[in-house]
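name: query_chain
kind: protein
chains: 1
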Amino acid sequence: MLNFHLCLLENDPVCGIVESKGRTTYNEVADELVAEFSNTDFPHVSSDQPQYDEKNIRRRVYDALNVLMAMGIILKDKKSIQWKGLPSSDVGNVADLKAEGTRIRGRIERKVAYLHELQTQVAGLYNLVSRNEQLSQEKKAPHRVVALPFILVQTRPHATVELEISENMQVVHFDFNSTPFELHDDAYVVKTLSSQEQRTARTQ
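structure:
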């Protein structure tokens, strides 16, 4: 897929379309931009580049419009989008606005990634509950269980580990004697377990 992220990052295509129309809608902007990026005569496109993902383009347009609205460059009233214009034509101010747009876009992308991670964790927990219920119905439930949350300490099979636990059970000291080790939280373990079960189900 063509990497047009930098083009949209500058907001130039979206700004140009909204500014030229004065008042428009998301669908109009997205349709026009999809048409431009689908045209092999468009300056940013060469015939040997992969076909565009229309959904990805529309998502990028949606993000760009949100950035412009947050910067006060456009006004949004339900489905209607109105061009307000840049606060100043000063080059320094424009550069500051673009930098702010980049920061806002970065925050949006981080929040989207965090939301995706939370959705993955929730799906893993649902799968774990379903698995435990099935084991219980089949009379295969283990006698010992591990409660959430927990921390898994992983090291090499041949490692010599010295363990000390405080009297109040609040402090645990590990000495791995220079052997490499890793720490995993319960979210990582549940996600790994869910992935393994999905692979097993596909091979059956």
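note: The chain has a mean pLDDT of 77.
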